[in-house]
Amino acid sequence: MISRIASKYPSDNNAIIYEGSCYDFVKTIPAKTVRSIVTSPPYNIGKEYEEKVDLNKYYEEQERIIDECVRILTDDGSICWQTGNFVENSEIVPLDILLYPIFQKHNLKLRNRIIWHFGHGLHSSKRFSGRYETIMWYTKTDNYIFNLDAVRIPQKYPNKKHFKGPNAGKLSCNPLGKNPSDIWEIPNVKNNHVEKTVHPCQFPVGLVERLVLALTNENDWVFDPFLGVGSTIIAAIKNNRRGLGAEIMADYIEIAKKRINLAFDGLLKTRPVNKPVYDPNNPKINLEYEELSYEQLPLFEEENSFRYAK
What we know:
By secondary structure, the protein is of the alpha/beta class. The chain has seven helices and 13 strands. 23% of the residues lie in helices and 23% in strands.
């Protein structure tokens, strides 16, 4: 069986994973060929996949990859840089603010500073516990793709109508749903999450899907320079886009390949982005104990394609 995951650009496949540094891989991608870049770079806090360095050096490393991302981005494309805080001795440095001058240098337009709020995480004893991160959405020009109808969420009052004036009796809200706003309540990937793997800071697929659907069209390329276990590529191929990314950790690459093959077959379980975080009539909905995590699912290998065991 021919692999559906390529290892270099260009490729006729819908998924490319470069096993190595993003700084090397991005140089092989031609200018203005990627419609969207969605990533969550290391936060320089000493996780297993990063070396903690001086903040000035971290800034230089981020500038180096962002410069290349701007080069490969189409004129109507978007960059979504999802970050948290650098933390040392309970003092935080907001990385979105730290990195803002790099994007400003390229005259990119900041369309939203999206707040990703989640309910679970480490507890702090010296400051309030952190429960949000930010997604900086930049566009290269004023002529950019934004498919709002593709990501609308249910109206709070879907049957609300005008009570007077020329539209009396007609719906007062968009029947397709409302704008999801710039505050997103999406659970992070913790132990009981259906998508959980060994990665300590894993991207929820649903979060990436909302960005992919809103900011790209079908068959567009979506790039993640810090791919991890493949959530960005999964979000792309689930929605008839193409995904590419780089990863330096061999264990993550193998997991990403398995997950992507499952996604190609329509068998990868992911948490829907619009699934309620809490339903008072169904307390289990937030815990998701009824669903197995990635690590709990028995897998078997068949012609290099990984599937759920029956």
